[in-house]
Specification:
Elements (H helix, E strand, L loop, with lengths): L3 H6 L80 H17 L7 H24 L8 H13 L10 H6 L2 H7 L6 H14 L8 H13 L2 H11 L5 H17 L3 H10 L2 H8 L9 H16 L1 H9 L2 H10 L11 H16 L3 H9 L2 H11 L2 H14 L5 H9 L2 H9 L5 H17 L5 H44 L3 H17 L2 H17 L1 H12 L6 H20 L12 H16 L2
């Protein structure tokens, strides 16, 4: 007996179902046919071209042009056009033209409003009910319910037009259709489930011009209808060797990306479903070339990790950091081809791992899996991976729990690598990450230990060349910031106190864009050197004096940072305990800055 899968996945006629095209842009692929306002499927308007060839001659030769030849009596003119026309008289033609005009005038574009939605919802529910009844009644005879399944398939696709009318989202949810649509994810026919996934992806897409309240309304209804569990369960039954199922995986990942735009949902997805396990199994699969779904899986993982510390910790518990390092190890000396899915895949894996090492558990796993050694190889020998490996090291060494990573960097001969790169011609992003690494080493390496002594030695060797470059960079950043500060002061003079407060974030952003963070980090590094090495202090004083400056410029920068942290403490630390202590990292920063300011006084 013919199975239902055979009936739907192997039609006798050519299938018109859109398929995911791995070589195309994700935003252009596998979209349901949108209906225009008049209810017709949108078309690109292309028509087949007919080429005329005037040079081809066919048929008998034309008679000679000789007026004296006798060819019989002349044929009278066909005034009614019966021979060369359509076989109708002029009056009949006018009547038909009039009737055609009347029919065209009667076609009115369908209005998409509440009345239309209620009608559509009723038909949609009827199609679902009818299909369910026929499936139950003729379970072993797919021919009997195949027609109802095709009707349901068409109705699901027709819901695509709702993405153009988000004002109807709330009523769509109230009518119960959201729950019915989500319920179709459990349909026995995976093609029906895939259609439902695609529509859910379209309705929740960021490109939909929906107000936040409208988006929240339909998403909340979907979550209440058990969207997450039903969606994740489909990853287990989709077979990516099949075109249709492969597109289903793509759109299911798209739904997760859409939902993760709300931080609370991103955390819920990571904590209450098995998606991280599935992603960790999907990402390492060997493919050549790397498929769109493999790349998208890595991207969704990075998004979920960026949104939630709990998700990052869970991934570490699943040994995800080790697995991601194993993937990156294949690119330590080889770059993926530019502009390919593979290149984006590698970037997403770096992003995911960078998120992991921001957590204490991630730092520990990073050291255990020899992540420091791998990054140093990439910094020395990599091309595309060089800057990303440096950023990964910067994050791994940072934070109050980065001491172990700092010690590992020193033990792995990493000082030579990072200080050597610093003395080369490098871009601004590389400078920022190197400064972050230097700052972490000085902040976290234990006093009087070999690692700290070796780090200080790197700053003073070769006639203080690193300090020379640090001060030169400081001058460049200070000049840029001074120019922006002058512009800001002019703007402030024309504003009220309320307007200044509203514009404060914008001004800070402009200062950061021209290097405020790098200037602050440089001054922290210089302050540490002043505090710990007399020779370095003399060199720094001499270099600053060349511009009639002294240690007070460093103190001012550090005091500004300290005031910002203290101000945030007074406003509340956000941890909910009312003690204003902030997290451990902020307290550590305040203590460090306060101590360094005293050394510069």
């Amino acid at each position: 007996m013919t199975s239902i899968d055979d009936l739907f996945k192997k039609p006798a006629l050519p299938s018109h179902k859109r398929k995911l095209e791995p070589t195309r842009d994700p935003n252009e692929i596998y979209k349901s046919a949108k209906l225009s306002a008049n209810g017709h499927v949108k078309s690109d308007g292309k028509q087949p071209a007919v080429e005329e060839d005037d040079d081809i001659e066919a048929g008998p030769s034309a008679p000679p042009e000789d007026d004296e030849e006798d060819y019989g009596p002349d044929i009278p003119d066909d005034e009614e056009g019966r021979f060369f026309g359509g076989g109708i008289t002029k009056n009949e033609s006018e009547i038909l033209d009039y009737m055609d005009g009347q029919e065209s005038a009667e076609i009115v574009p369908e209005k998409i409003d509440s009345a239309w939605l209620r009608k559509m919802a009723l038909n949609f529910e009827k199609k679902i009910t009818k299909n369910a009844e026929l499936r139950a009644k003729f379970e072993n005879d797919p021919q009997k319910f195949m027609g109802s399944e095709a009707d349901l398939d068409a109705d699901i696709k027709a819901l695509s037009i709702l993405s153009e009318h988000p004002e109807l989202y709330g009523e769509f949810a109230k009518l119960g259709c959201v729950g019915s649509l989500v319920g179709l994810l459990a349909h026995e026919n995976t093609d029906i489930a895939i259609d439902a996934v695609e529509i859910i992806s379209e309705l929740t897409d960021e490109d939909v011009e929906a107000e936040q309240e409208q988006w929240n309304g339909i998403v909340d209804a979907m979550i209440e209808a058990d969207l997450l569990d039903l969606l994740i369960s489909n990853f287990g039954r989709f077979n990516e060797s099949n075109d249709s199922d492969r597109s289903g995986v793509y759109h299911a990942l798209s739904v997760l990306e859409n939902l993760a735009s709300r931080v609370s949902l991103a955390e819920k997805i990571g904590q209450e479903t098995s998606i991280l396990n599935w992603l960790l199994n999907r990402i390492p699969k060997k493919e050549s070339p790397v498929s769109q779904n493999k790349q998208y899986s890595a991207e969704v993982m990075a998004i979920l990790l960026q949104s939630s510390p709990l998700n990052r910790r869970k991934l570490c518990e699943l040994d995800g950091a080790d697995l991601l390092l194993q993937i990156l190890a294949t690119y330590r000396k080889r770059d993926p081809m530019k502009g390919t899915e593979e290149e984006e895949f590698v970037e997403n894996v770096f992003d995911a791992l960078t998120c992991c090492v921001d957590e204490p558990e991630g730092k520990q796993k990073f050291v255990e899996a020899e992540g420091v050694e791998l990054c140093l190889i990439m910094v020395k020998e990599g091309k595309m991976s060089k800057s990303r490996a440096l950023r990964l090291l910067d994050h791994a060494l940072g934070g109050q729990t980065g001491a172990e990573v700092c010690e590992k960097l020193v033990d792995a001969a990493g000082l030579k690598v990072v200080f050597g790169m610093f003395m080369k011609k490098i871009d601004g992003q590389t400078v920022e990450h190197l400064l972050g690494i230097f700052s972490s080493l000085l902040r976290l390496l234990p006093a009087n230990q070999a690692g700290r002594i070796r780090t200080l030695a790197k700053f003073v060797e070769k006639d203080y060349e690193k300090i020379n470059k640090l001060v030169k960079l400081r001058r460049d950043y200070a000049t840029r910031i001074a120019a922006v500060d002058a512009e800001i002061r002019k703007e402030q003079a024309r504003m009220s106190a309320e307007e200044r407060e509203e514009t404060a974030d914008e001004w800070l952003s402009r200062r950061l864009d021209v290097g405020l963070f790098c200037l602050q980090t440089i001054d922290v590094i210089l302050a540490w050197l002043v505090a710990e090495d007399e020779g370095a202090e003399k060199k720094i004083r001499a270099l600053l004096a060349e511009r009639d400056e002294g240690l007070e410029v460093l103190r001012e920068t550090l005091q500004e940072q300290l005031d910002t942290l203290v101000g945030g403490e007074e406003e509340g630390d956000g941890d909910g305990d009312g003690d204003g202590d902030g997290d451990g990292e902020e307290k550590m920063m305040r203590d460090m800055l306060g101590t360094l300011v005293q050394f510069l006084t």
